[in-house]
Design a protein that fits this description.
Layout: H1 2-22, H2 55-64, E1 69-70, E2 77-78, H3 84-91, H4 100-112, H5 124-136, H6 139-144, E3 157-158, E4 171-172, H7 174-190, H8 192-196, E5 203-205, H9 210-220, H10 227-231, E6 239-242, H11 257-264, H12 267-275, E7 281-283, E8 290-293
Antiparallel strand pairs: 1-2, 3-4, 5-6, 6-8, 7-8
Helix pairs in contact: 2-4, 3-4
Residues 205, 234, 239, 241, 290 line the site of zinc ion.
Length: 298
């Protein structure tokens, strides 16, 4: 009896281990605590985001904010202003990027995520680690990281004409469309500026058939770095490109840095960064307009 009990316990332990190994969630390094609550993550930050001890880090961040030469998504960029809302969300602070409070919150994140330096300075390695965390939330990225490409869905639903940007007909999986509608209603209820802009959150691309993407790639050379032709997230019916604003002279899906910077400052994008996960939507952070619903596997 006692032997059987021990065996059962061993089997249970083995099962737990297997679960742990196969889980895609980032594991916390041994000996480290789970993330702290939002209130204590950055320590006692005053209302003006002053934080003794973090002046030099704040100065370094203030300097690099518009000058850092790097390529976080493979394409050369200057500065990291575009990613400030995303970083603030991840490190759970509302303090501006050049403040001591921001540096303290970033240092806490670095500490919790086993970064080589918990110095409160935004560096390329720190951002790449953060980007990894954000990208791992995309079921599509997890799926394709094993070399596969998801099948097209069995069912897609037509959105209402007024849900498409410029009246365009778009399609999503039924669950994704329902979640999208809930999210739009909440955004408009919570932020008057979002409700007042008739284009806010309208979809300009939803489900796209792999054949159509391949044809467009061949005919127009519009291959989106061949990603579109090979395996686009839009084939799943879970991805939606939503209107989050556009800088003068640019389109709502232009990845020009000036346009992405403009988008990163709109109330719509900022609300999404803070709230979309409540509705199951996660962002591809290089494209402020591209969101994927995670309520179903790709
Ligand atoms: Zn997209």
């Amino acid at each position: 009896m006692r032997f059987l009990g021990a065996s059962a316990a061993a089997l249970l332990l083995l099962g737990l281990l297997v679960l742990r190994v196969t889980s895609c969630a980032p594991a916390h390094p041994p000996g480290r605590q789970a993330p702290l609550g939002a209130a204590d993550v950055a320590g006692p930050v005053s209302a003006d985001c002053r934080h003794p001890g973090w002046r030099n880090a704040a100065q370094a961040n203030a300097n690099s904010l518009t000058t850092l030469a790097w390529a976080p998504f493979g394409r050369a960029e200057t500065g990291w202003e575009i990613y400030v809302p995303l970083i603030q969300q991840e490190i759970r602070t509302t303090c501006p990027a050049n403040s001591e409070g921001f540096a303290a919150a970033l240092a806490a994140w670095q500490e919790d995520n086993a970064q080589a330096a918990a110095d409160g300075v935004l560096s390329e390695p720190t951002f790449v680690a953060m980007k990894g965390t954000v990208q791992t939330r995309r079921e599509f990225v997890r799926f394709t990281s094993f070399g596969g490409c998801p099948d097209t869905p069995d069912r897609i639903t037509a959105a209402r004409p007024e849900e498409g940007y410029g009246g365009k007909q778009v399609w999503l999986r039924p669950g994704a469309l329902a979640a999208y509608r809930e999210m739009v209603a909440a955004a408009k209820a919570e932020v008057p500026a979002i409700a007042e802009d008739p284009n806010s959150l309208k979809i300009f691309s939803g489900y796209r058939s792999p054949a159509a993407d391949a044809a467009r790639c061949q005919a127009e050379g519009n291959c989106d770095g061949i990603v579109r032709a090979r395996c686009s997230a839009h084939r799943t019916g879970l991805a939606a490109d939503m209107y989050v604003g556009q800088a003068p002279g640019f389109g709502p899906d232009s990845s020009a840095d000036a346009n992405r910077l403009h988008m990163s400052r709109t109330p719509t994008y900022r609300w999404l960064v803070a709230n979309a996960r409540r509705f199951g939507f996660v962002n591809y952070p290089f494209e402020p307009w591209h969101w994927e619903w995670t309520g179903e596997p790709p």
